[in-house]
Amino acid sequence: MYKISRIKILTFIILIFTSSVFSSVSAQEIKKITLEDAIELALSNNLDLQSERINLELAKNDIKTANRLQNPEVNFFYNYGKAGKGNPQMIGASELIELSKRGPRKKLAQAGLYKMNLDVRLKEFELEMDVRETYVDLVGAKTILNYLSKQQQLMQEFLQISQEKLKNNEVLETDVIQAQIALNRIITQINSAKASVNKARNDFNKALNIKQENNECLYDAYEDELPGETVFIALKTPDYKEQMPPFERISQKAVEKRLDVQTAKQLIDIAKKNLTVVSHQRIPDIQIFGGYAYQPQGYSDTGEFRTGAYAGANLNNIPLFYTFKPEIKNAQLQIVRAQTEYESSKNKALKEMNSAYEKFLASQTNLRFYKQKLIKDSEKLINISKKNYIEGKTDIVSLIVMEQSYEEIIIGYVNALADYYTDWIDFLRTVNSEDFDIFDNSL
Fold first, then answer.
1. Which three-class secondary structure state does DSSP give residue 150?
2. How far apart are CA 403 and CA 155, in angstroms?
3. Please, are residues 165 and 65 in contact by the beta-carbon 8 Å criterion?
4. What is the full DSSP assignment across 78-114?
């Protein structure tokens, strides 16, 4: 009986430790939101995305800068002393006119804006995937915690059964001790599971990345368990019973739809437009000037005040000594590099898609096996073992071993279910589309 009391004391200490460790979480307000609300919240308030969208505004202003006109200059000429005798005094303005330069610069800036739009779309997509993945991880962690709590209730039931059988002298005291040890083991696992939930919740909020004053609110997933037979509506995950099409049927057109591949292709267009801008530097610019001219009475030959005007032009930056050959050569090399990087991005995309697709198929196979075989058989086995122990046909050790095996299978099933969702999300990452229909025959 002393051993039993010592184990109970240990259990009490564990419970005290658990409440102290997780009291900080309960002190902070936790707000549950659905996956759809989480995505909408992140797209509207994520700090990294807000920064990326500022870059988009900067790119829009770059178009105005590229299309600017040169500011004019005001000129004033006054001749003093004998040098002014018979010469006019002049006041006017001059303007530099760029020939065939503003148009190419503007087109280059517009190409940069389109590329920045692709970057923002990719950032938004990656944010959605991060929110989806951390949401699933959080619900998966909560699911494991719930299953372990149910196992704790089951082990408490085993302990009560062993205590009743001990009173009736049907078992030895060691049965009660072993049941108590098994219960304490579950309690420690629950403590670890709570820590996993807290970590997953923090990762979810990190993905949301929303500015908050004084850490006022912590967002949590609306669901407490992963759905077993249905899927998250917002995830649009294929049914695990569906037969997936071969990778070759979906790969080629899916690659072309990837945002990063489109960005790499746009860099080719940017490099070509940049070559035009650089090449047009060899075209001379014209500077025109004109204004008002006059001769004061004391400086004119006739002693009269004379008025008039002047006009002129300069041809600036004539490519006589320097023809911009190095800049043009570099611009040509940038086109070759951009084309090479485009082909490289497509090759890498195919490999990433193939790897992610194979991983998803493996997760589908595992989940199907858990659902069709392991779960049903394990539930049947634990019920038989429990019945046999009550009837005295087996000992407590066998019952605990069956319970631990059942526990491992249940946790394995939850992990397999979470992997099925997250592996599909990983596949969506590789195709850069959250609405990718894998059964679309037009792909």
1. helix
2. 8
3. no
4. ---GGGGTT--EEEEEEEEE-SS-HHHHHHHHHHHHH
Q: Is 291 helix (H, G, I), strand (E, B) or coil?
A: strand
Please give the Cα distance from 203 to 137 (Å, whole number): 9
Q: Which of 98, 107, 105, 92 is nearest to 70 (CA)?
A: 98
Q: Where are the domains of the chain?
A: 2-66+98-284+319-431, 71-97+285-318
Is-contact 31 220, C-beta < 8 A? Answer: yes
Contacts of 423 by beta carbon, 8 Å cutoff, 6+ apart: 356, 359, 360, 362, 363
Computed from CA positions of residues 247, 249, 253, 257, in that sequence, does the dihedral angle turn out positive or negative?
A: negative
Instruction: Give Rg (Cα) of the chain.
Output: 38
Predicted TM-score (pTM) of the model is 0.81
Taking alpha carbons only, the member of 185, 202, 90, 179 closest to residue 407 is 185
pLDDT 10s digits, 89-146: 889 999 999 999 999 999 999 999 999 999 999 999 999 999 999 999 999 999 999 9
Tell me the pLDDT tens digit for each residue of 378-400.
777 778 887 888 888 888 888 88
Q: CA 436, CA 443: separation in Å to the nearest integer?
A: 10
Total length of the chain: 443
Q: Which of 217, 189, 219 is nearest to 203 (CA)?
A: 219
Say which CATH architecture domain 2-66+98-284+319-431 belongs to: Up-down Bundle (1.20)
Which amino acid is present at 415? Answer: N
| DSSP character string of 175-244 | HHHHHHHHHHHHHHHHHHHHHHHHHHHHHHHHHH-B--STT-EEEEES-SS--SSS--TTTTPPPTTSPP
